[in-house]
Amino acid sequence: MKWSGSILHPEMQWEAISQSRAITTNEQPWDEDPEVGQMPTETRSALVDVLAPQTSTPDLSWVCFWEGFAGIREFLPSVPRVQVPHRSYVLVHATVKRVGDGPLLVGPPLRDLGPNLWWPDDRSWCVASEIDFRWTYVGGSAECIQAVLRHERLEALPANPAQRADLLGDSINTPGGRR
Known about the structure:
By secondary structure, the chain is of the alpha+beta class. The chain has helices at residues 14-17, 41-51, 72-75, 96-100, 142-150, and strands at 61-66, 81-84, 87-94, 117-120, 125-129, 136-140, 173-174, 177-178.
């Protein structure tokens, strides 16, 4: 974060940290912005390393994909749906390991969609990637969360329900400078 002058904290937002100061060089440490509403395959793979040992049911996990992704309704017309306020998801199942192995849903016009919601059958943890944001939350036991925070391939910070989780939630770093 040194290149941008941003401050690392649990409520930081991509839009704020990637533009937090007038950048005078092209030395951003990334090639592309993170995708909105998607958990990258590399992140899923690292989470499997951490989460598989944290469940007694690694052979059965439940995975939800937002049904608003282009083509998903046509590709999966008869799978069960999960309704939450303002969202509808298709529900499929897979082993925990399979979720980290790459595409779960592949076929025209689908690409490698990451799950928006994912949990093992014993409900020992839950992973959520909101479709409108660039981040993922993991809920679980204190031991589980510590394992996520310590994993070398994950960029993770502790969060709590009182923190804002919206595009204006970063009260420290803001596009164009600090508040």
